[in-house]
Task: structure prediction
Amino acid sequence: MSDTHLTRRGLLASATAVALGAATGPARAATATGRTKGTVAAEVPVLWREFTRDPFTHPQIPYIGRAGSRGGSPRFPRRPVVADVTDFGAVADGTTDCAPAINRAIAAAGRAGGGTVTIPPGTFRIDDLIRVGDSNVVLRGAGSDRTKLYATRNLTELIGVYGSRYGGDKSSWSWAGGLIWLAPRARLDSLVAAIRAKAWPFEGWTGNKRDEWTSLTTVEPARQGSWTLTVADPTRLRPGSLVLLRLADDADHTLLEHMSGGGPGPEAYVWADKTKLTSYVPYEWPVRIARVHGRRVTLERPLPLDVRPEWDPRLTTHVPELTGSGVEGLTLEAIETPQSPHLLDKGYNGVVLQCAYDCWLDDVTVRHVDNGFGLVAASACTLRRTRVSGRGSHHPYFCREGSHDNLIEDFAIEDRTVPAPPNTQLHGINVEGLSSYNVWSRGDMRMGTFDSHRGLPFANVRTDITVNNNGRHGGDASAGPLFGARFTHWNIRVTNGRAGLMKIDGLAPYSATVGLNTVTEFDQTDVPDFTGDPHSRLELYGTTDVVRPRNLYEAQRDLP
Result:
């Protein structure tokens, strides 16, 4: 990382100039107050002007300008082709089980130290999981309209019943696992073994029992938005290495209060009985080290939270990550079956990234799935040009178990091809479980909603999205609040006028709703979790697309 990132406050241009420079579409030439021929009038929110003056510590808008793989790079690595699945026995006849051949080709690429595995045009039947378990391995089809993997079995058949570690008869395949599963080989093997032994695992960065980590050093106090830390012992820290910043809560739950923006509301909230939420703590944030200079450590992203002594802050090891891997240019289509009743999903799931960092999906469609694309303890990953289609899904997109700094852009959720069966639910784009600083950008949602699924997700952004808002949020009451602080909805077009989970100024603490068309409040069950003033902002309500910048993520990415 260059020193540019450390001095951005001094380099930011005026708010209006930046906002107009980030404008896209026919209104690019419009001014903040006037109208030019053939354009609509652009409106620069006060919030944007504020943000550009102090982008890393704004109270309502999070800094997400480096979300995604390789800091949000528009280009993915092009790794040399090292294998073609047909050379390992795959046949595009739609009837031969090609999963063994595809997995042999992927394993060969892993043994070679990485590379691209190609799948030519055609339909390849798979009767097993496709596993990407080695770093720097890319599985590439000929395009989502040309290469199809046709999945005939579900995760319950392939691995077994996956119950919830919280008890009851819920199927964890409702929010975990994919028929294409990107995860470190050892991690995936241990997960499968635990599931088959009915020892329901913890799915995050530190192992099945959350004990596979070692402290590297303690950390001195620092403020949210800082790019640097002062550590007690730098001897085990190296530039380029991935570490976890680990923050534990204290007996008064001041860390959870801080995630919620602090103040009287969070202080009065009853945290002690939120057993599912407290199981997500410590908060674990993966980040690469950019530079080590004495005891000063520079990070590749600014701190997501304050670092305070009462939270026992430290940098630690973690389960080895999958990094530099991806899936591109294919459709995964499951055999068409009716959607299962709520929380009884069999596991006709799409593509999941787990314990993955700097990985990506590009031009991937999933069809007839229970759950579409998943981020489970995954961070700094990009999902670009992804699409969920077919008979309808429980979670078209899910982001959970401490997933941070991910970018989902140019995504689509198509309308159902069949009516929804009874006792099924649709959540849309889900975020939960202390997941933070994730971005959903440039989306077309023909169904679903902005599902904040309890578990205190915070500092997440949805921007430049069209949505037919016909879904509902989920989440167990023991998982705590729907929203932490600094959720932002920016330039959102609601086609059916339903307010729920779109207009969040009265619902989410320290949030921002900017550029939303007029929505109505009927048929809503969403209520704020915290008492008192939420300190949230609403601006340019009743309008869309004239707000400048049009896309909050792209404008932040383009800041100096």
In short: Residues 99 and 126 are 5 Å apart (CA to CA). The first strand starts at residue 81 and ends at 84. Residues 215-316 form one domain.
